[in-house]
């Protein structure tokens, strides 16, 4: 079977913050467009809290939600109870959607669980120091190649300067 690329997409402040009060700590319209473009047509894996922070399942993508709660249901999403089963389901859906990529969209607990297995990270660096309660896990930059980096200035719809960075893992694992 074709190998599926396992990616994560995240927006992170200079001090590693990704969230506050189960929401994003900023408004960055440009990043939402980048998120949409990068995830469209792909299966996306997320923790239950991130799912609940969204207005609902994201159109054009298949949402896979991880929870320990055996009674949890989410209309329009697939619910599962471990990272491994989320990957299995993600691979099957990727094949059905004719894509070679499964994208983990957060939050911190799920990023922490999957970091060692990721092939690619779409990292939006938000050029600001933010007060938050949820952080991206420490990772070793030596293990990653920077494939691309694109700077964007703050604007009326974007609270902070930010850079879209694509990282790929250096060696096969
Ligand atoms: N900046 C960004 O790019 C970005 C991206 C995504 C999210 N966020 C932010 O991050 C925050 C949410 O992140 P979070 O870390 O609090 O929560 P999360 O990772 O979205 O979800 C955590 C939940 O996932 C389930 N879970 C975790 N580990 C599990 C395991 N091993 N097996 C089964 N289920 C497991 C549990 O659900 P149950 O409690 O139901 O069992 C747990 O409460 C929000 O502020 C959100 O806005 C930011």
Topology of this structure?
Elements: E1 5-13, E2 17-19, H1 29-39, E3 43-47, H2 48-53, E4 62-66, E5 77-80, H3 83-96, E6 101-106, H4 108-114, E7 120-126, E8 134-135, E9 144-152, E10 162-169
Parallel strand pairs: 1-6, 1-7, 3-4, 3-6, 4-5
Antiparallel strand pairs: 2-8, 7-10, 9-10
The structure holds NADP nicotinamide-adenine-dinucleotide phosphate.
NADP nicotinamide-adenine-dinucleotide phosphate is lined by residues 10-11, 18-19, 22-24, 46-50, 53, 66-69, 72, 81-82, 105-110, 113, 134.
Q: Helix segment count?
A: 4
Low-confidence stretches: none
Shape: globular
- Structural domains: how many: 1
Q: What name is given to the CATH topology?
A: Dihydrofolate Reductase, subunit A
* Residue-averaged pLDDT: 96
Structural class based on helices, strands and sheet pairing:
alpha/beta
The ordered string of helix (H) and strand (E) elements is EEHEHEEHEHEEEE
User: Any guess at the CATH architecture?
Assistant: 3-Layer(aba) Sandwich
Distinct small-molecule ligands in the complex = NADP nicotinamide-adenine-dinucleotide phosphate
Largest sheet: 8 strands, mixed
Rg measurement, Å: 16 Å
Q: Would you state the CATH class?
A: Alpha Beta
Task: Give the % helix.
Answer: 10-25%
Distance between the termini: 18 Å
Q: What order do the strands of the largest sheet run in, or round the barrel if closed?
A: 5-4-3-6-1-7-10-9
